[in-house]
Amino acid sequence: MIPKNVRERYIKLKETINRHRTAYHVYDKEEISQQALDSLKHELSEIEERYPEIIAPDSPSQRVAGKPLPGFKKVRHKVPQWSFNDAFSPEEVREFDARVRRFLSASSRGGSSSGGKGGSASGGKPFGAVHPTYVCELKIDGLKIVLDYEKGVLKTAATRGDGIVGEDVTHNIKTIESVPLSLARPVDIVVEGEVWMSSNGLDALNKERAKAGDPLFANPRNAAAGSIRQLDPKVAAGRMLDVFIYDVARTSEKFPETQHEELEYMRTLGFKVNRHHALAKTIDEAIGFWEKWKAKGRHQEYWVDGVVLKVNEKKYEQALGYTGKAPRFAIAFKFPAEQVTTIVEDIVLQVGRTGVLTPVAHLKPVAVAGTIVSRATLHNEDEINRLDVRIGDTIILQKAGDVIPDIVSVVKELRPKSAKTYTWPSRVPECGGDGKIERVPGQAAWRCVNKDSFAVVRRRFHNFAGKHALDIEGLGKERVDMLLEKGLVQHYNELFTLTEGDLLTLEGFAEVSAKKLVAAIQKARHVELARLLVGLSIPQVGEETAILLAKKFHTIDVLAKASAEELENIEGIGPIVAREITAWFSLKRHRELVADLKKVLIVANPLSMSRRRLDIGPLAGKTFVLTGTLESMSRDEAKEKIRALGGDVSGSVSKKTDYVVFGSEAGSKLDKAQQLGVKILEEKDFLSMLK
């Protein structure tokens, strides 16, 4: 039995706390201090402690659940989740506006309508003169979230996932104060929004992680995503997360007639809506809004990476509907790639696994696109000359969605008198012996004359044991270096003769760790031909080329006897690659290396045409290129799935490419695909294709 006065007090406390939450997070009004609000929450929690049966699902105390979950449940979205097509220039946005007008004009004349969310389509009724307006909203760089309320109470919160099925993260979303647990009215509604972390929140979090010895988050987006995907809600609760709600996917009430009204409708229900939005009567006004925020978008407490333009009129939105991957009525107008300036402090040569020398600029550390950068490759001698970059120069650096930082140009008016022109050396000590180097015939690259210097050998061993080759678990670069420095191995085959006793002589090894590494090495004796070819460090033979060779040739012995002409006849292998392969196998020491490995390895070739037909499978004959980071799988896993279904994977985009699959932070490959008219697939479309 709960006394009447206690029950009444509890209800008033709950309503008061929730009202002040709404005032603070939705309307930016702090009507009472946070200390006073905390006092009210404390009183409410004392009542709940005495009378546990009184606890309501929308009680502020329910923001932090109890025990960590064993894993995430899957949630099927009530409304399919889409993502926007991107525009990168005013010209592309004007073309978007032109497409909208053409489509609406055709629809008004009686064309078909694909409909959309929030209600029924126009049914082909004429609109009269078509004059769409646009709502401009900031594109917050965070994690998309879908909230489902029943009778005004939060039921589930889910990630976007593949657009059809997401992960249930309700326990973590409840910890975010700006997410209402109950709404102003008992409405059934599904809304979409973005979870974000402020730059200050990221700094505070990274300080804590640094003290604990944990790896730091690169940017607020990664931190927000990582926090929401914690199984323990107490972790998310301590990470200063926030949310903006920007769209209604479904509602049991009358749907607003415009996007502008929809934003206000969500606010009246108690959702936090970003106040920086505007109604543009023309596309030029929308571009003006983008121009204004292009300069200041990155200086907000949250990250902004562009502006989303949405057709304001819902009748037009319904008529425009969706393509297979995105709404026709909206587009994400992205800001230009972030560029920064920094100083070249030195240029040094790095010896690669094939002995090729790569010049690397050592930079004054600088933050660009969310990461601290202190190195940038200069590729080769010709690139240094093209840029005319010197030690001491101020350079413009960018990460245009790509992982690798790129030097765009030199700010020559800032060149100091002390700037030094980089002189290509005639000898490099890391090349061993006399250190002589030579220019590779027909290429811009230089390489060590001595192909067996310690620097080259250790790089080869790193590659041989690496994840794209034999993938020996526990045999990282430091352990490889120890084995070489102590003379325990000199050749690849000697790895497979190592014993636990051998490893116990090395620093950092105990009986258990030695046993585990020996077991991992023995497991790696079973290797596919393509992986072995990658591990041999044959010049020009990377993962994709190795797979082409494995498909064509039954065994490594057959490949070793292949002529340059035979190799050139393989689609994807040119004359330079063919010459490098035949030259490598022509050397006696390389043939002996292969013979020694055959004594200790069991080489399989599931890709061989003599083993299986490669013209079958749903993706047979299709070539894919992957760019950016996928949410549901690693890039290597995606490649394996494509190949298992008969498809091919390439590292570069050309007219022969069938599909480019892109994830977050997609790079220049996506741009090239759009230029060439190659079909691009969002992750959800790619997953559907795999199914």
TrEMBL record:
GO-annotated biological processes: DNA repair; DNA replication
InterPro entries from the UniProt entry: BRCT_dom, BRCT_dom_sf, DisA/LigA_HHH, DNA_ligase, DNA_ligase_CS, DNAligase_adenylation, DNAligase_N, Hlx-hairpin-Hlx_DNA-bd_motif
Residue positions of the active site: 139
UniProt keyword annotations, A-Z: DNA damage, DNA repair, DNA replication, Ligase, Magnesium, Manganese, Metal-binding, NAD, Zinc
Binding site for Zn(2+): 431
Binding residue positions for NAD(+): 83-84, 137, 160, 194, 310, 334
CDD domains, sorted: BRCT_DNA_ligase_like, LIGANc
EC numbers on record: 6.5.1.2
A Pfam family matched in the record: HHH_2
The reaction(s) this protein catalyses: NAD(+) + (deoxyribonucleotide)n-3'-hydroxyl + 5'-phospho-(deoxyribonucleotide)m = (deoxyribonucleotide)n+m + AMP + beta-nicotinamide D-nucleotide
Any one GO molecular function term: metal ion binding
Start and end residues of each BRCT domain: 614-691
Cofactor: Mg(2+); Mn(2+)
Role this protein plays: DNA ligase that catalyzes the formation of phosphodiester linkages between 5'-phosphoryl and 3'-hydroxyl groups in double-stranded DNA using NAD as a coenzyme and as the energy source for the reaction. It is essential for DNA replication and repair of damaged DNA.
Sequence similarity: Belongs to the NAD-dependent DNA ligase family. LigA subfamily.
HAMAP family, sorted: DNA_ligase_A
Protein name in UniProt: DNA ligase
Originating species: Candidatus Kaiserbacteria bacterium GW2011_GWA2_58_9
